[in-house]
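Researcher: Sequence of DUF2029 domain-containing protein follows. Predict its structure.
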Amino acid sequence: MRTRPPLWLATPSRYAGVTRTRARLILGGLALLVLLSFQSLLLGDAPSAEGAAGASDLALYEGIVAGMRSGGGYYDVAADQLRALDYPLRPFLTFRVPTLAVVQAALPPVAVVILMLSISVSAGLAWLGLLMARAFTRPAPLVAAAVLLAGGLVAFVQWPLWPFHEFWAAPLVALSMAVRRPGLWLSAAAIGLAATLIRETAALYLLVMAACAWIEGNRREAFGWAGALGLFAIVLGFHAWAASHAVGPLDAQSPGWAGLNGPGLFVRAVWQSSALQLLPLALAAPIVALAAFGWSAWADPAGKRVAAVIAAYAVVMSLFARLDTFYWALMATPLILVGLAFLPDALRDLATAAMDTRRVRVQRITR
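Model: Prediction complete. Tokens:
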């Protein structure tokens, strides 16, 4: 089937020219994805960064930084704060890697806020430049993408939330994806490694990027991302050893990570941590699903990688996250809404292919 000119995109979408059968299967999968998003309405009220659980976490992280500024060592101070607030101390992952606390304790609060804002703004500008160069050439879709990008990053410029590790790691992950180019991945891998040294859940991003590079045939890049993952594993090993010396036999054990709360938890978490919180959840839920799908329509390696990262965090959250670990979704929040800008071309191309009823008729003439 001959492809039609793109609506918003600079080049045809990934779904331009697909067969009728494949288009119908993809649309069926999208309908199922939207349907699953409504599972978020069935979950109990999850905590948020501004709620009671979020306030306790805020007190924990602020207390650790304050203790370090008073001369205390990270692991002893962190253990004391965890006990004081009735948090579990085992396994060692209940202790955050000390990178962020060390930086925050060494800098004045104003410098910390400026650094946090700089990372988020840099991620936004880097992605805006990338979208302008490779995705949208006309003003209307570019403005729409910029608004959607701001809607995903709005939570990450709220300076009262600076103690939360996810509010630093997530924009670093977004910045890493923006600076990655074919053959130029070293800076992206370094930024991704920095994100893991702030929040361990960013390691899933390194894993996805390594897998994407391997699938694309970029073996050297794949080994580079794997190397960054290996460096993180070494640091995590030292972190586990240090944390074990601050934990006693009577300290509480974490309930574990086997929530099995389904994709609704991911949808709800994105809703809570983006501009979508201005909408009721019943309306925001399908928007999250459509936005995640939209990224798959961009026929660019960056689009495929963003879609893969979003899908990875959604699956992991569906299987392992508890209601109070909603913040795992923050790794996907900065970029997910931009997927809506790719949706018009995707839906047009899929609908055109799905409704194609043309048949090839072969007529045999004998003389």
